[in-house]
Amino acid sequence: MGRCGARRTDENVLRRLGLFRVAGVDEVGRGCLAGPVMAAAVVLDPERHIPGLADSKLLPAEMRESLYDQITGRAIAWACASVEPAEVDALNIHRASLRAMREAVCGLTPWPDAVLVDAFLIPDLPFAQRAIVKGDRRSAAIAAASIVAKVTRDRRMVELHLLDPRFGFDRHKGYATAEHLAAVALHGYSAIHRRTFRPPSLFDTID
């Protein structure tokens, strides 16, 4: 897993400055047609190393599930937050992602001393923060957050599939796969689809 490059370098720099509880935060689901955008924040325990942390997109599902159990079992603190499709439509996906990340960080107990964020600074966050480009591949704390967010959202999409199996949410998790687009063309959008996320091929689809 060393090829993925998620390390504790950035957290260790902050700890040497006296900021001991360093949270990583990340979101998943930005590019989906359906379902919530999900964010997670994680404060790793420097005394309880978790090998194999990496950007969730680079890991197979079985490894994400295993790492999820390790992260949630060993972390000093972790929290998740989501923004539902109707609110994504009202806010736009960028603002919705920032809101989910802010709520995840503020849901940590105890609160962090500092926050590492993947790519963007979070407005109105009451903690010191640093944005790291491609942070989910560089920072162990952000990678851990990406894994927790991904597993939590995937589980949610499986639950939504059980409520409405027409779209195959358990397989594509709301992303715009060929299977998903074909189902939307046949059935229209469901209550958990984002109305502002319409590929050109679906402009004429009736809700």
Overall mean confidence score, pLDDT: 92
- CATH H-level superfamily title: Ribonuclease H-like superfamily/Ribonuclease H
* Alpha-carbon Rg, integer: 17 Å
Number of helices: 8
What is the overall shape? Answer: globular
Proportion of beta-strand residues: 5-15%
Succession of helices and strands: HEEHEHHEEHHHH
Name the helicity range: 40-55%
CATH class group: Alpha Beta
Briefly note the CATH topology name: Nucleotidyltransferase, domain 5
Question: How does the helix and strand content classify structurally?
Answer: alpha/beta
CATH architecture: 2-Layer Sandwich
Oligomer description: single chain
Q: Mind describing the biggest β-sheet?
A: 5 strands, mixed
Amino- and carboxy-terminal Cα gap: 44 Å
Please give the number of β-strands: 5
Descriptive account of the structure:
The protein has 207 residues and is of the alpha/beta class. It has one domain (2-164): Nucleotidyltransferase, domain 5. Helices cover 41% and strands 15% of the residues. It is built from eight helices and five strands; from the N terminus they run H-E-E-H-E-H-H-E-E-H-H-H-H. The protein has helices at residues 9-16, 61-74, 85-91, 93-106, 135-138, 140-163, 169-172, 178-187; strands at 22-28, 37-43, 77-83, 114-118, 128-132. The chain has a five-stranded mixed beta sheet with strand order 3-2-1-4-5. Strand 1 and strand 2 form a beta hairpin. Mean pLDDT is 92; it is low at 203-207.
Provide a concise account of the structure shown:
This protein is an alpha/beta fold and 207 residues long. Helices cover 41% and strands 15% of the residues.
